[in-house]
Amino acid sequence: MSVARSIDPDRIGFDPARLGRIDEHFRRYVDDGRLAGWQIVVTHRGEIAHSSTYGMRDLEAGAPVEQDTLWRIYSMTKPVTSVAAMMLWEEGRIELTDPISRYLPEFADVRVYDRGSVLKPYTVPAVEPIRIWHLLTHTSGLTYGFAQVSVVDGLYRAAGYDLGVPAGADLAAASQGLARLPLLFQPGTSWNYSVSTDVLGRLVEVVSGQRLDEFFAERIFRPLGMTDTRWWVDEADAKRLAALYAPHPATGKAFRADTIGRAALAEPTWHSGGGGLISTAADYHRFTQMLLRGGELDGVRLLGPRTVRFMTRNHLPDGRDLASFSPEGFSETVLDGIGFGLGFAVVQDPVPARVPSSVGEYYWGGLASTAFWVDPVEEVTALLFTQLMPSSTYPLRSQLRQLVYSALVD
């Protein structure tokens, strides 16, 4: 399956010349060496207005980006896991207010960091259990070791939770190990980007009775026709996988990061619901179209439309935005004017971030600078794929928004 360009973008409300600015702008990143290559897809009202590729999926091999290039989507896995959890919610098998210890007993007596150092932390009991909605909204108190901001981040790294989990751990063992670490804050009192969605993936396993990869394949990927989305790349498809890069500290040019990138070539011991998937533009396009259409695509319904609307509302307490409800740390989004729903960042007000968008737009991105958004007001979706880590290196996402919205003229 491929993603082809619309023959007549002005028929669906886009100015073709202005859409051309997208490629013109992002080509500069490749031509000056900052990116190896990229793929971009923009749709309006379910039709493709713009689809383009440029540069190399593998600089060293001289292999260009193609329609079927495989990309590590990292945290763009999180919305898929969130959809899986809400499918179980629609079946009445969980409630958002359930303590997760009902399904994951290792979280029955969690403690919260109070003061001290990595070598001698002091903790207090949690006064509120972690609930399922805390996992979906990243208000659980869990964190990421690689964030390297707090003492708790340091405790994660010391326990083997940095960019991954301790060697040989499966998702069940990873969840049990995380439960033994202190929370960054009392559940529900702040927002912090975290392994919450990995724990949510474990919860999906326990409730469904299936491994997470099996649930995804049976309940999401096969029904939606996402035939190229997987957890690792075998030898037959290895040439399609884009290489992973990072900015060179001296030149700023894309520098191959095989130490991390080669992990995609081996079957994982654990299935990371927070960042484990590899996909194509065509596959993730189908996922975003399902969301835009209220949970249904081509006669296949994963979620009810009211569930999708509920998921994509701001669920932070008192309608707060991330800027006022979050400690400093790594995130895949700007914070000002942005709320958070059940698995997605949600635009409350585009003005504070100084980036065009619609109130109610929802989105997320991945560590290697991939990104997507769904705008239910303008009926626009956009996808950006490249492989540069970390995603905070360049303002690719905000620039794509500028270019897409300035080309929408209907």
UniProtKB/TrEMBL annotation:
Superkingdom: Bacteria
Database matches in PANTHER family: BETA-LACTAMASE FAMILY PROTEIN (AFU_ORTHOLOGUE AFUA_5G07500), BETA-LACTAMASE-RELATED
Gene source species: Micromonospora olivasterospora
Protein's UniProt name: CubicO group peptidase (Beta-lactamase class C family)
Domain Beta-lactamase-related, residue spans: 22-397
